[in-house]
Design goal:
19% of the residues lie in helices and 32% in strands. By secondary structure, the protein is an alpha+beta fold.
């Protein structure tokens, strides 16, 4: 993996996968793990020159593990590993400056920064030296073990965990609340400052909690900030990390862009009226570029390689990687200005092994919510309801069944600010998993399960996502229309748009061409396709195809299903990631937002994203690699699907 000179730039040989990337801008150091399925290398590079300073084989790494966190100083590289579903794992320490072989620790490390390690114990975090000496402990009451991020400062001083906001704890246990930290992607700017990714990039004091939103409209989804240099240089890592992003070179206006810089390189995710960053990417067989300090112009970029003209190469790589990781099928459909690209690889089911087709439906899970929201908003357009009506005005039994702490409006159900308890934990704890999946539940039974948890949190000022909200909305639609929610969706959406692969889960066998999903239950492969549990479910019961999803969201954005004013209201407010049945992502091409919804359900993962004008779209569905059920049901691959979808939308600028 030696660099080669190309017209004054460093160009890198092709690599297969990078599991994580750590940087130290003050020391001009970057390290990453380059690996195949079971082996690979730790590499240390000086970004300013592209020089490989050191490289060493890593210890054996089972396929289900991945590197999650780490740090680098002038003598050593530290990487924590994830043992699969969790985030607590081992630590590799490589004294790279001395050329020592990587050493493996077996302590339950949640995070590592230099010689200070954060080790998870029951209800506390111990800050320890590398030799295991406990320096201090803090009570851990925020979130679960996945909620750490790169939580130690360069001096090992702080640990933090996200709840609705971000909590920063010093090693003495003092807590500071930072209101910007709603995503688990952040890093350190210095011993007492951290950087947060939200709608933009903020630099916050871990002492006072005050933040400055330095880079307001960066396209940040899918990246974790590694470090911030003294001149505003950011180094970030993607997930899955198939590239490295180095953002540098502050400027005040487009006129100050270095000569020869392409707009697509310089303008990604930035507001023209604000100071902006120049985004330079390095990918497989592409140039690694590092911005000089200040606004020093960079040399002209090398000519693009002619071997890879496919603009959707990253999607192809992603699809093949999912198949290699055990996914039975991957389905992708892209639209841009009327042009289409698609990929369908894998098999329809593991029994017949018939090749999957693009027209094969999958369970789209929570993407169903966007369709249910349309049916509710149609009622509002017809004057049958008002969004700020109390739910009890139209559903007489709602308040008696759910016992909310106060009046709950239809709008609060749509945008998940009702605080309503989730119904799924009680359902999935009630009987063995096979029996849960094989049991049909009425909407009343679903809400009755939610009612077993006291409703103490609502209404809430921010999105508190709960499937129960859309169960109640389904009941509302059924009451006012006098028909099952699936029939209403068919009348309001499916038939007008001609969505031939879209339907509600019904009694009986699945569609004959449906892509099948699987779980491992008691170490046995179980087909979980089209379960009775999803019959008629307004929170996740629709099956559809990736092309149908693009057709639906394009029609929605272009005003074919609702009035333009209603669509604008559906898109929500800038401060939230969720509107009325729509997820919101930063759209780097417009400095605005893209809309759609992710879906994650047993056996299936989906994401559908559309630009606000409906002209750029990507929908991705995979049948997950068969794995045991995890409490809560969430699959960690769901985040990877969302990340690659947003990256694709950005690359269509």
């Amino acid at each position: 993996m030696e660099p080669k000179e190309t017209r004054g730039r460093r160009q890198w040989g092709e690599f297969r996968d990078i599991r994580d990337l750590v940087g130290n801008s003050s020391l001009d150091l970057v390290s990453w793990v380059h690996r195949g399925a079971y082996s690979g290398d730790i590499v240390v590079v000086r970004p300013s020159t592209g020089e490989v300073l050191a490289q060493a084989p890593i210890p054996s790494l089972p396929a289900e593990k991945s590197v999650v966190y780490g740090s680098i100083d002038d003598a050593a590289v530290y990487y924590a590993t994830s043992p699969g579903e969790g985030v607590i794992g081992d630590v590799w320490v490589w004294r790279w400056a001395a050329g020592a072989a990587p050493q493996l620790s077996d302590r339950p490390v949640a995070d590592v920064s230099g010689d200070i390690w954060a080790v998870e114990r029951e209800y506390r975090i111990d800050f320890e030296n590398a030799d295991g000496t406990v320096l201090s402990s803090v009570h851990s009451s925020y979130g679960d073990r996945t909620a750490f991020g790169s939580g130690l400062s360069p001096g090992g001083r702080f640990w933090y965990a996200p709840t609705y906001d971000l909590i920063v704890e010093t090693a003495t246990g003092a807590a500071v609340k930072i209101e910007r930290g709603f995503q688990q992607r952040y890093g350190w700017a210095g011993p007492e400052e951290l950087t947060l990714i939200g709608p933009g990039i903020s630099v916050c004091s871990a002492i006072t909690g005050k933040c400055e939103e330095s880079f307001k409209s960066m396209n940040t989804m899918g990246y974790r900030i590694l470090s911030v240099g003294p001149i505003g240089q950011l180094l970030t890592a993607g997930h899955p990390v198939r590239n490295m992003r180095i953002l540098a070179g502050m400027a005040d206006s487009p006129a100050q862009m270095p000569a020869g810089t392409k707009g697509s390189d310089a303008m990604v995710g930035l507001r023209l009226q604000a100071p902006f960053l120049r985004l330079v990417a390095f990918t497989a067989a592409a140039a690694m570029i590092v911005g000089a300090e200040g606004c020093t112009p960079a040399p002209n970029p090398p000519e693009q390689p002619s071997a890879s003209p496919n603009p959707y190469l990253e999607l192809e790589i992603f699809g093949k990687a999912m198949i290699e990781r055990g996914a039975p099928a991957v389905l992708i459909h892209v639209r841009k200005d009327g042009q289409e690209w698609s990929q369908a690889i894998g098999v329809r089911n593991l029994e017949s092994k018939e090749p999957v087709q693009l027209s094969d439906p999958v369970e789209i899970a929570s993407v169903t919510k966007s369709m249910v929201a349309v049916t509710v908003l149609k009622l509002a357009e017809e004057g049958k309801i008002k969004l700020d009506d109390p739910v009890g005005k139209h559903l007489a039994d709602f308040d008696g069944l759910m016992r909310p702490p106060g009046p709950i409006t239809i709008r609060q159900l749509l945008n998940h600010t009702s605080g309503m308890p989730e119904y799924t934990p009680d359902v999935f704890a009630s009987k063995p998993l096979n029996e849960v999946l094989g049991t049909r539940l009425s909407l009343t039974e679903r809400l009755s399960a939610a009612a077993k948890t006291p409703w103490t949190n609502g209404p809430v000022p921010e999105t508190d996502y709960s499937h129960s909200n859309y169960v109640a909305l389904g009941m509302l639609v059924e009451k006012l229309r006098g028909r099952p929610i699936g029939d209403v969706i068919k009348t309001d959406i499916i038939e007008p748009l001609g969505l031939k692969g879209t339907s509600m889960t019904l009694d009986g066998p699945p569609p004959p061409n449906m892509a099948h999903g699987y779980l491992l239950i008691d170490a046995k492969l179980v087909d979980v396709t089209y379960p009775a549990y999803q019959i008629g479910s307004p929170s996740g019961g629709i099956v559809s195809t990736v092309s149908d999803l693009n057709t639906f969201y394009r029609a929605l954005m272009q005003g074919e299903l609702l009035k333009p004013a209603t669509v604008d209201e559906m898109k929500g407010a800038d401060a939230s990631f969720y509107g009325l049945g729509l997820w919101r992502w930063n759209d780097a091409c417009t400095n605005g937002f893209a809309f759609g919804h992710p879906g994650d359900i047993l056996g299936y993962g989906t994401a559908s994203m559309t630009s606000t004008d409906g002209n750029r779209q990507v929908s991705i569905a995979i049948t997950y690699p068969p794995a045991p059920y995890v409490e809560g049901g969430e699959n960690r691959l769901d985040a990877e699907i969302v990340d690659i979808a947003q990256m694709t939308l950005r690359d269509m600028c």
